[in-house]
Amino acid sequence: MIVMGFLKNIKNEIKVIRERDPAIHSDMEVFLYPSFKVMMHYRIAHKLYTQGHYFLARWVSQRGVRKTGIEIHPGAQIGENFFIDHGNGVIIGETAVVGNNVTLYQGVTLGGTGKEHGKRHPTIGDNVMISAGAKVLGSFTIGENSKIGAGSVVLEAVPPNCTVVGVPGRIVKRNNQKLVREDMNQVDLPDPVNEDIKALQHANSEMTNRIIELERELKMLKKSENK
């Protein structure tokens, strides 16, 4: 039974990685992927953790860290079809809950904000993509089908079907059309800072034109007074 479950996990990891990484050319390459290695360690460590074998769970988990540079606490709860692309520097805390069909990129942190006890790490809904270097810190939920832009720092809950970018993270799209699992585009996300700059430039241009218009009216008024 244990062997069958292990083989099922291997087959699923091969399927997920082949679906989401266009750079892969064969099933055998999957065995070289950090995501594959760390998830094999995590599944074993998590099983030990839920059975109360905390030291053994951490021992297995730390072996995975040394091999991949990805740290997943054995207490974290991770759903099916989970994928970490590249992966180095990814950290997932003890009380994090990750849904199905979630994709993380390198440098992502699902962490806490201090040394509080209890639920202190985020809950990630189904079909969420968190781009490179993003930090999600605290005990709140990222709604399903949402995207977190590269380098964002998210400190509060995000509703479903949203796009978040920036530091601190800002919701720049609400009620997106449902994001399909294969939508791995990290580039074409809104840039709120650039949008604010454009808005300021537009306002400045309008103000300049108005000042020029007022100066023209003032000159005409002075001319009429001198006549």
Would you summarize the structure shown here?
The protein has about 230 residues and is an alpha/beta fold.
Would you mind describing this structure in some detail?
Helices cover 38% and strands 16% of the residues. Helix 1 (2-20) packs antiparallel against helix 2 (34-50). It contains 4 helices and 15 strands. The chain is α/β, with parallel strands linked by helices and 227 residues long. The chain folds into 2 domains: 2-190, Hexapeptide repeat proteins (UDP N-Acetylglucosamine Acyltransferase, domain 1, 3 Solenoid), CATH 2.160.10; 191-227. The radius of gyration is 25 Å and the shape is elongated. The chain has a 6-stranded mixed sheet.
Q: Can you tag this structure with a few keywords?
A:
UDP N-Acetylglucosamine Acyltransferase, domain 1; 227 residues; 38% helix; alpha/beta; elongated
Q: Into how many domains do the coordinates divide?
A: 2
Order of helices and strands: HHHEEEEEEEEEEEEEEEH
Number of discrete helical segments: 4
Strand order of the largest sheet: 3-6-9-12-14-15
> Count the strands?
15
**How would you characterize the largest beta sheet?**
6 strands, mixed
CATH class of the largest domain: Mainly Beta
